[in-house]
């Protein structure tokens, strides 16, 4: 039937979107690792420019896929009560690419200084953020996959919450250190803003996980 073909097409677009988003987040994370630990040589800056351009391209491609998903839902894919849930979920996933792009652009265009004493913790926040999205990607694939999805999605969502808690603790720790340091006020504010740009990515991943978990609860009979 036509309606099942449309649903299959929507799932295909969702899988494409999650892969674009994963690529966007992982490219941003790689770029941040290079930036945070870099001496800003000509070579590292060139890599940064390439990666920043790639993040911009991936974000635009994800936006295009979201519009296709929306159009397929408008055309009658899925029952009416599910269309809103699916669109809210994918809009929240798309917001992750927006946050990743925003962070990438901030570092690329504003070039904040990251003193060596903050590099380890900021790098750990990047690593935890990267892992958080890996968990979300698996959770979303579980949801649209096998019949035993509820428990798998729930466990992935729980792990994302744990990772977000670890990130929040690190962000508070580094923020406290920044504002008790001998940096001048402008440097403190710029560094704290650069830290917040990274942390907002994981905030948005957790928001997307909450949307997915809500759909998961509704799917349990």
Which value, in Å, is the CA radius of gyration? 19 Å
CATH class term: Mainly Alpha
Instruction: List the secondary-structure elements in sequence, H or E.
Output: HHHHHH
Provide the structure class.
mainly alpha
CATH architecture: Up-down Bundle
The helix content, as a percent range, equals over 70%
The CATH topology is given as Methane Monooxygenase Hydroxylase, Chain G, domain 1
How many H/I helical runs?
6
Count of beta strands: 0
Report the principal-axis shape.
elongated
Distance between the first and last residues' Cα: 25 Å
CATH superfamily: Phosphate transport system protein phou homolog 2, domain 2
Which spans have pLDDT < 50 for at least 5 consecutive residues?
Answer: none
Strand content: under 5%
- Domain unit count: 1
Main beta-sheet annotation: none
* Average pLDDT figure: 91
Element layout with pairings:
Layout (H helix, E strand, L loop, with lengths): L1 H35 L5 H33 L5 H31 L5 H28 L5 H31 L5 H35 L2
Structure in a nutshell:
This protein has six helices and no strands. It is an all-alpha fold. The protein has a single domain (2-219), classed as Up-down Bundle (Methane Monooxygenase Hydroxylase, Chain G, domain 1), CATH 1.20.58.
């Amino acid at each position: 039937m036509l309606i099942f073909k449309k649903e299959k097409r929507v799932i295909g677009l969702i899988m494409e979107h999650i892969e674009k988003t994963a690529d966007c987040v992982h490219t941003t994370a790689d770029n941040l690792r290079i930036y945070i630990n870099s001496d800003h040589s000509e070579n590292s800056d060139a890599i940064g420019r390439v990666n920043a351009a790639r993040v911009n391209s991936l974000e635009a491609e994800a936006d295009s896929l979201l519009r296709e998903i929306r159009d397929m839902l408008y055309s009658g894919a899925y029952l009416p009560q599910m269309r809103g849930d699916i669109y809210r979920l994918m809009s929240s996933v798309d917001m992750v690419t927006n946050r990743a792009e925003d962070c990438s652009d901030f570092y690329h265009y504003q070039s904040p200084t990251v003193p060596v004493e903050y590099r380890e913790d900021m790098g750990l926040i990047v690593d935890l953020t990267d892992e958080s999205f890996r968990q979300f990607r698996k959770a979303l694939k579980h949801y649209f996959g096998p019949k035993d999805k509820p428990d798998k999605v729930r466990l992935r969502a729980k792990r994302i919450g744990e990772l977000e808690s670890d990130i929040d603790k690190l962000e508070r720790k580094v923020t406290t250190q920044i504002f008790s340091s001998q940096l001048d006020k402008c440097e403190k504010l710029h560094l704290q803003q650069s830290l917040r740009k990274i942390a907002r990515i994981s905030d948005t991943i957790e928001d997307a996980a909450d949307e997915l978990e809500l759909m998961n609860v509704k799917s349990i009979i």
